[in-house]
Amino acid sequence: MINEFLGQPPNASFHGYQIDHILEFCHWFMAALFFGWSIFFIYVLIRFRRRRQPHADHLGVRSGISTHLEFSVVLIEAVLLLGFAIPLWAKRVNQFPPGKEALLVHVVAQQFSFNYHLPGPDGAFGRRDVGFVSNTNPLGLDPNDPAGKDDIVTSGELHVPVNRPVIAELSSKDVIHDYFVPAMRIGGDAIPGSLIPIWFTPIKTGSYEVICAQLCGLGHYSMKGTLVVDTPQEYEAWLKERAELSGTQNAQPPPPAQRPPGEPLSNPTPGTVVPPGAPKPANADAQGVAASPHPAQQLQNAPATASPTPGG
Ligand SMILES: [Cu+2]
Question: Which pLDDT belongs to residue 262?
């Protein structure tokens, strides 16, 4: 009930109800504490007002009620933390589903989108190297690695089958992002140089929002994506479609970066970046997109004034 009031989307994952229970209980408990302490505060203001209590009492409280009350609060908090929150989190980070049963996806974040790398029919991920990163190869897949020939690279939207555990290995190309799927009640930081796995089991088909939950730059507000939970048949159809696309394009170029308003381009090339609101050129297809500089490279050219100042 409180979760809906706070704007939490309906849960769509197997473990999510446990998170909801903890959130629900914590909020009710904090509400009870807030009202309890507020009533006590008002009582003390009236009971010990100066007119009634002209001289200070240096002995203070003589009954043990306050000690018992405070001890109960500490006890409830300890049970919440040690009995529910830590075991639930331990299960999330220690008990990963076995490799064959789960679907493994590499999530590579960049300013300002999420890329997905799937192993393709052979089940093996191709080697990735930063040296191969280009406009047409956003993840730097090694073209000489046979395991990478059938790999699927996609951006913005990921499809997963329902009722099958999904392990997402998070990493980043530039700054720290956070891959957060509110409806799945899961999220994790995507940090350059780290591989951070998270896992969840979707139990309801549908389309869910993916957001970046770390302030990662001027375009952070627009760093959103979609997680589509399919029936197994729909998922197979999507895989086939992506595989065909990967076969014709080799690697999918990233979508054109949505330039945040007010951010200047230090080295603009005419015709490569469409300004917001401008009419789309007739040939704004995959080739036109591939010709534009990579979003991450564009951002490196941004002036130093674009970086946030601490304490500002
Ligand atoms: Cu981000």
Answer: 54
